[in-house]
Design goal:
Elements (H helix, E strand, L loop, with lengths): L2 E6 L12 H10 L4 E6 L1 H4 L2 H4 L9 E4 L2 E4 L1 H11 L8 H32 L5 H23 L11 H10 L12 H12 L1 H18 L2
Parallel strand pairs: 1-2
Antiparallel strand pairs: 1-3, 3-4
C-alpha cells in the first residue's frame, strides 16, 4: 500500500524546499519508496478531517493502511525503520543516528526557527533591531558546537542517515540569513545533502506544487 502524506497547497516558503513535507519527501526518495501527496489549504488544515490526522493542524501527516502519524521526525523515523538505507544496521550506530534526529529538531532548530519567525513577524517592530543580536548569538552558539562536532567528516555520524535528512533541512532555514558564510564546514555539509539525487527529486516535486499554485 502506498503511503499518503499531506503538504501545503500553497506553501509559504515559495518553493524553496523549507516546508517540513520536504523532509518526508526526501526520506521516501532515499529509500526508493513511492508516496502520494494530499494538498491542503490553510483552512483545511484547521478543519476536523485534518485535525483527526494532526491534532495541531499542521503538515506533514502520514497515512498508510491503518497507521496515521504526524510530526516530520516521527514520520521519518518510521520510514527509516520500515525500509533499509536511512539507519545503520548496528544497534549502537542506529541509536546514535536517532539521537542526532532528536538533536536536529530539539537543540538546533529552536533558535533557528525563533530567528526566522522574528524576521517574518517582528522586523517592522521597534524592538526587532535590539533583539536581533541575541537571536543571532543563540543560533551561532549552536552552529559553533555543530561545526566543531562535524569537523572534516562528511556526515554527522559515519554514513549518511535519517539524522542528516533532519539536520540539513533544519540548517537550510538559514540560507538567506548570511550566517552560514561564517561556517564553511556547515555550508559544505548542506551542499552535500542538496547534491544527493534523492534530495533533488524531492525538491523538484515540492517545487512543482508551488509552480502549479502560482501558475509559474
Amino acid at each position: 500500500m502506498t503511503a499518503t502524506i499531506t503538504a501545503f497547497a500553497a506553501s509559504p516558503d515559495r518553493g524553496q524546499g523549507l516546508a517540513r513535507d520536504m523532509r518526508v519527501r526526501w526520506a521516501f526518495e532515499e529509500v526508493s519508496q513511492p508516496y502520494d501527496v494530499r494538498l491542503v489549504s490553510f483552512a483545511e488544515m484547521k478543519a476536523a478531517e485534518h485535525l483527526a490526522r494532526h491534532p495541531f493542524g499542521q503538515i506533514p501527516t502520514f497515512e498508510e493502511g491503518g497507521l496515521t502519524l504526524f510530526e516530520s521526525g516521527g514520520i521519518i523515523l518510521h520510514i527509516a525503520e520500515s525500509h533499509p538505507g536511512l539507519l545503520p544496521d548496528d544497534p549502537d550506530g542506529r541509536a546514535r543516528a536517532i539521537a542526532w534526529m532528536f538533536a536536529a529538531v530539539n537543540t538546533v532548530e529552536p533558535p533557528i526557527l525563533e530567528r526566522s519567525m522574528a524576521w517574518l513577524l517582528e522586523r517592522d517592530k521597534p524592538w526587532y533591531e535590539a533583539r536581533l543580536p541575541m537571536l543571532d548569538a543563540n543560533v551561532r552558539n549552536r552552529l559553533d558546537q555543530l561545526s566543531a562536532h562535524l569537523g572534516d567528516a562528511e556526515w554527522l555520524d559515519g554514513a549518511f542517515s535519517a539524522a542528516d535528512v533532519m539536520m540539513v533541512t533544519v540548517l537550510r532555514r538559514l540560507g538567506s540569513s548570511g550566517i552560514l558564510q561564517d561556517y564553511p564546514t556547515l555550508a559544505a555539509y548542506i551542499a552535500r545533502g542538496e547534491a544527493r539525487p534523492a534530495y533533488q527529486r524531492a525538491f523538484a516535486a515540492q517545487l512543482e506544487v508551488f509552480k502549479a499554485a502560482t501558475g509559474g
